[in-house]
Amino acid sequence: MMAVDFQIPAARFGDDHSPYLSARLVADRLGVTLAELAKLIGVARNTLTAKSGARKVDSALSKVVRILAMASEMAGDEARAVIWFKHQPIPGWAGKTAYDLVGEGKADKVLAYLEAIRAGVYA
């Protein structure tokens, strides 16, 4: 199995002035508001921009960024990955999308699904 270097994709979601992922950049790439992003990753809206919440937000955003990085690699570009993330139902999940599953706290299931596809196991 080929390892993905998440440093490059993660750098696209970071802020030059901070070691943490940028909630604003992730929200912009997904085409959602900060409030929608906060709900998606399970943090309070105010936590997204509070300095004291940076580690918690970074941890929550990291799974979304990993999913987008893997999907981008597989789809060929980030725009297609975002469309897949928000709109393409994942087989076996009753019509739910990656976005839906992440919002339910099941980002690990989405990552496992993408790993399986990349390894040649198709759902």
Domain module tally: 1
How large is the share of residues in beta strands? under 5%
Number of strands: 0
Outline type:
globular
Arithmetic mean of pLDDT: 86
* Low-pLDDT windows of residues: 1-8
Structural class: mainly alpha
Helix amount: 55-70%
Order of helical and strand elements: HHHHHHHH
- Give the biggest sheet: none
Using only CA atoms, what is the Rg?
Answer: 14 Å
End-to-end separation: 18 Å
Number of DSSP helical runs = 8
Description:
- The chain has 123 residues and is mainly alpha-helical.
- The chain has one domain (18-118).
- Helices cover 63% and strands 0% of the residues.
- The protein has eight helices and no strands.
- It has helices at 7-12, 23-30, 34-41, 45-49, 54-75, 78-87, 98-103, 107-118.
- Helix 5 packs across helix 6 (78-87) and helix 5 (54-75) packs parallel to helix 8.
- The longest helix is centred in the middle third of the chain and has 22 residues, at 54-75.
- The chain starts with 6 loop residues before the first helix and ends in a 5-residue tail after the last helix.
What are the defining features of this structure?
mainly alpha; globular; disordered N terminus; plasmid; Xre/MbcA/ParS-like_toxin-bd
Q: Strands, helices and their partners?
A:
Elements (H helix, E strand, L loop, with lengths): L6 H6 L10 H8 L3 H8 L3 H5 L4 H22 L2 H10 L10 H6 L3 H12 L5
Pfam family, one: Xre_MbcA_ParS_C
InterPro entries: Xre/MbcA/ParS-like_toxin-bd
Keywords: Plasmid
